[in-house]
Amino acid sequence: MSTRTPIARVRGLGSAKGGTHHWWMQRLTAIALVPLTAWFVTSLICFAGADHAAVSAWLGSPLTAVLMLLLIVATFHHMQLGLQVVVEDYVHQEAVKIGCIIGIKLASYALAVAACFAVLKVAF
Amino acid sequence: MNTGNRPLSPHLQVYRWQWTMLLSIVHRATGIALAAGALLLVCWLLAVANGPDSFAAVHGFLGTWIGRFLLFGWTWSLTYHLFNGMRHLFWDAGIGLELPVAQASGYTVLIASIVVTLAIWVAGYMAAGVLG
After folding, report:
1. CATH number attached to the domain at B19-127
2. Measured between beta carbons, which residues in chain A are less than 8 angstroms from residue B127?
3. pTM score of the predicted model
4. Is the reported ipTM for this assembly greater than 0.90?
5. Which domains does chain A have, with CATH numbers?
6. Torsion sign (Cα): A97, B88, A71, B61
7. Long-range Cβ contacts of B7-12 (<8 Å, 24+ apart)
């Protein structure tokens, strides 16, 4: 048993050496996603029923492409942080838990890169 | 810290059931649903990049009843998760933590998510010229 007091153990960055980084990034991406989501949903309403030419002209314009890239980065960062917590709460077998978290993180990065590539391909 | 075998939270069955519990778990459920919805976003963006044929294929799927049903579900998941997420951000700032306020904001979020979801779909159908 450690003779250190509980307060000594949580000072600084704590046992995970991450401090509140996970919590902070979840909030930071959430704040970014409020205006980005409002913009995205409004745009989709405006382009309901639009053909491919109209949608790709919109998606390829500099402002749209930049906002869409920001939306993708914030969404997938927020998503993998959230899914990680769900797994940590409900999956109690260590190997399965770590496996799920690795899968979630790698799949999120792959999906984000694919989405960014699609936007850039339309833009250039 | 040795926690031994004492019961740890969440230990939901000992609590009296309340609406705010449902609102809380729905936030997590809609988050998981939105992760599935994010796959659609990626498919849609890749379809736009791939050309008119792929674009037509994805829109063809979204035009079916199952496609519309999924889109509607994702729209509500998005509005609920967005509004309830804003509720969480206010709590993080120390605002609205009093019990009556937290309950009222919960009902407000639920009703707003339903109203805004319906408004989005009406506006979308109007923009597409379906409702004239």
Report:
1. 1.20.1300.10
2. 45-49
3. 0.87
4. no
5. 20-123 (1.20.1300.10)
6. positive
7. B10/A89
